[in-house]
Design goal:
The protein folds into two domains: about 120 residues, no CATH class; about 100 residues, no CATH class. The protein is about 65% helix and about 5% strand. A four-stranded mixed β-sheet has the order 3-2-1-4, with helices on both faces. α2 packs antiparallel against α3 and α11 packs antiparallel against α12.
């Protein structure tokens, strides 16, 4: 995380998760609607591609992240259509006449939901949302440091290669030894004025500083790792030359308060709430007794966990 006024557009983790839930609703809706009304495979796939592309544009996802969503959505379609093929074919043969169309729809809805149900209730949505969110967060954190509008690009304008990392009382054990310290850009000689070079070399040598490139990469991943709350600021050469890292931390108010972790009961509540939203949206397309019972059960679970919040 960077606090230097960069203009990189960044969404919160919760917003990204909500948009992924919306995509999940749309994907299952497209699949169910296509199977219900005999939509050709290529048209259903085209609609799925459009939905994934729309979300990718809205969030500015990378090619890898977009491809991950597309593969996940396409595999859902293949899984559901494969499971329903034989059953739907039997229904078509049994209710071939137009006057039997309504009876056909009732049975088709039940078959379609039976095949979708496993996808909804096996936490696939939660796992996919978390993994993509972590990928998204890591990329944005990296861009905030090394991108065209990132911290190092701004440091080049200020001609100081030094960066100070924040500190907080209860960091991750493997980050404790690296927080609250000074680091420098390994490319500093390409932009720092020649008259400052000797001073910078002396500071790096005498304080045995590590580069910011090393510390934000493997194996440390300071600031760039998922859920890491540390951040960097760029500090001037004169400040570094005449002050310790500890005094600079105090001067810039970089001792953070620890945030309370999200209780497990809140995570359960969110999981059931997201699943309920998917089921309720499907109920408009494929209403049937099993789906109605699942909705009823999830509402009970929500009430149970809501009382514990």
């Amino acid at each position: 995380m960077v606090k230097n006024g960069t203009k990189i557009k960044r969404y919160t983790n919760l917003y990204v998760k909500r948009r992924l839930v919306k995509l999940e609703i749309d994907v299952f809706g497209i699949i169910a609607n296509g199977l219900l009304h005999h939509t050709p495979k290529h048209k259903t796939i085209a609609k799925l591609q459009k939905e994934v592309k729309l979300l990718s544009v809205q969030l500015g996802l990378s090619d890898a992240e977009r491809n991950r969503l597309w593969v996940n959505s396409y595999n859902k379609y293949l899984s559901v259509s494969k499971k329903t093929f034989t059953s739907l074919r039997k229904i078509e043969l049994k209710f071939g006449k137009k006057e039997d169309y309504e009876q056909s729809l009732v049975q088709r809805r039940a078959v379609i939901y039976d095949s979708i149900r496993a996808n909804i209730r096996n936490n696939d949505l939660v796992k996919e949302a978390n993994e993509l969110m972590y990928s998204y967060e890591h990329r944005l954190k990296h861009d905030e440091l090394f991108g065209p509008q990132g911290l190092i690009a701004n440091a080049e304008e200020g001609k100081s290669p030094f960066f100070l990392c924040s500190s907080h009382p209860k960091p991750a054990e493997d980050h404790a030894a690296y927080q609250g310290k000074l680091y420098y850009d390994e490319q500093w000689e390409s932009y720092v004025p020649a008259e400052d070079a000797a001073t910078i070399r002396a500071i790096i040598r005498n304080r045995k500083l590590m580069t910011i490139q090393y510390i934000v990469g493997a194996p440390v991943y300071l600031t760039t790792r998922r859920n890491c709350k540390h951040y960097f600021i760029n500090v001037g050469i004169d400040e570094v030359a005449h002050s310790s890292a500890r005094s600079l931390i105090r001067k810039h108010g970089m001792i953070m308060e620890d945030e309370a972790s999200v209780p497990r009961k809140v995570l359960y509540y969110r999981e059931y709430y997201n699943r309920l939203k998917v089921e309720e949206s499907l109920h408009k397309l494929v209403p049937n007794e099993k789906l109605a019972q699942d909705i009823k059960n999830d509402k009970k679970l929500l009430d149970k966990w809501k009382n514990k919040l």
